[in-house]
Automatic annotation (TrEMBL):
SUPFAM superfamilies: Periplasmic binding protein-like II. This is Extracellular solute-binding protein. The keyword Translocase does not apply. The keyword ATP-binding does not apply. It comes from Paenibacillus chibensis. InterPro entries: Bact_solute-bd_prot1 (IPR050490), SBP (IPR006059). Keywords: Signal, Transport. Belongs to the bacterial solute-binding protein 1 family. It comes from the Bacteria. Residues 1-21 form the signal peptide.
């Protein structure tokens, strides 16, 4: 009970109790908790309902979900989308009640969920061995696997190729060049970059892109994340030079206060309709962009660093699928995860949400949109410390991102934003201990 009490406190403080609406047991009949991925359901002629709660929209899983329907006629997968801003609070309230979905899409909160006893240990399942270690590490605790990865995720800077060509703009290879093209475009009356800063995510990710280039790329900083987890290193010390350099986008008027009122969808629309030359996001946005503007010449480049190089993308292993430890349909849930560990399922996932696969032997052609990212991909320059290494990743980056919103509003300094993140890390570590 002690673990569940602190988990409720950690994940349940940011949102109102009204988010508890809709909590219910995702199953009422079918097999018991015993079983493995190879077992057949207890009642093969009766459909068993599996509830899958996710923070990525159903459209990003459409082909995969259709495939599950075809492969498992005895299983009805009910897809329940909850936006990322509400996800942890809604999920936690259900898990606290001993209910929750059968299958959970997890990310940076995996270790917290596993430590709280909410996830099924998948270590002994044969399908886990089909994934590369890089895809399993973010979802493992003390050598035990608690979730298996879907496709990788990554974010870079989408840009309007036609607009760049018309204005003689080249893809930047350094951060100084990145800043300069904003100024050059603005001088021509073109909005250089749009950002849905109503969300705490985009500034958080873009600033860490420069940290990847200027900090994590150095051999001497290889062990930083482990020291950070242990409380032996601070972001306010290590990251400050990089984040202060990134904050030129704020101090030089490139990112503006009015963006705090701009949503993700509004920023996407501005970019897709040619009202801005650049926008940071990932492959999940491509379909919507092209639907809004079928003639759009779309490209993506990595976030550049202080020195010329291939640049870095924010990302790595994306979300994963875990099984609720209290599911009434463990055998069926394991069947779904077992099938997900096939090339057929992986290609179906990638079709609606482009990314590489962590399933061994699966090749993916990402296409021309990402041609400018090729060197970064080849160099392995894709990293997000909060999912790859940090024990309490999601709460830390959420706090950091929200503090950056205050930096944009002129309320806080960059150093204070990093200190806020350090305080959250300290609090989480003390609570876990």
């Amino acid at each position: 009970m002690k673990k569940r009490k602190w988990f409720s406190m950690l994940l349940g403080t940011t949102l109102a109790a009204s988010l508890l609406a809709g909590c219910g047991n995702g199953s009422s009949s079918g097999s018991n908790n015993a079983g493995s991925a190879s077992e057949a359901p207890k009642e093969p002629n009766k459909k068993v309902e599996i509830r899958l709660m996710a923070y990525n929209a159903e459209s990003t899983r459409a082909t995969y979900l259709k495939l599950l329907e075809e492969k498992f006629p005895n299983i009805k997968v009910t897809f329940e989308f909850v936006s990322l801003d509400n996800f942890n609070n809604v999920l936690n309230s259900q898990l606290q009640a001993g209910q929750g979905p059968d299958i959970i899409e997890v990310g940076g909160e995996t270790r917290l969920l596993a430590n709280a006893g909410y996830l099924t240990d998948l270590t002994g399942e044969e399908f886990t061995s089909k994934y590369a270690d890089a895809g399993l590490t973010p979802y493992s605790v003390d050598g035990k696997v608690f979730a298996t990865p879907l496709q990788s995720w990554y974010e870079g800077i989408f840009y309007n190729k036609a607009m760049f060509k018309e204005n003689g703009i080249q893809v930047p290879k350094t951060f100084d060049q990145f800043v300069q093209i904003h100024k050059d475009l603005a001088a021509k009356g073109i909005k250089p970059q749009t950002m849905g800063a109503q969300s705490w995510e985009p500034m958080m990710k873009q600033s860490i892109g420069l940290v990847n280039n200027d900090f994590y790329s150095k051999v001497e900083n290889k062990e930083f994340d482990q020291k950070f987890n242990a409380g032996e290193a601070k972001l306010a010390d290590a990251w400050l030079p990089s984040v202060e350099k990134w904050s030129r986008l704020i101090s030089e008027g490139i990112l503006t206060k009015d963006m705090l009122g701009l949503s993700y969808d509004q920023a996407l629309d501005e970019f897709a309709t040619g009202k801005a030359a650049m926008w940071e996001s990932g492959p999940w946005a491509v379909k919507t962009i092209m639907e809004k503007n079928p003639e759009f010449e779309l490209g993506m480049f990595p976030i550049p660093g202080s020195s010329e190089g291939p640049g870095w993308l924010i990302g790595g292993p994306g979300s994963a699928l875990a099984i609720n430890a209290k599911t009434n349909h463990k055998a069926e849930a394991l069947q779904i995860l077992n099938f997900t560990a096939t090339e057929e399922a992986q290609q179906a996932l990638i079709k609606d949400n482009a990314g590489s696969s962590f399933l061994k032997g699966v090749d993916v052609n990402l296409g021309d949109v990402y041609a400018d990212c090729e060197e970064a991909f080849k160099a392995g320059n894709v990293y997000a410390p909060w999912t790859a290494a940090w024990v309490s990743g999601n709460p830390i980056v959420e706090g950091y991102g929200k503090s950056l919103q205050e930096v944009l509003a002129g309320i806080k300094t960059v150093k204070q934003a990093l200190e806020d993140a350090d305080k959250i890390n300290d609090t989480m570590r003390e609570t876990l201990n």
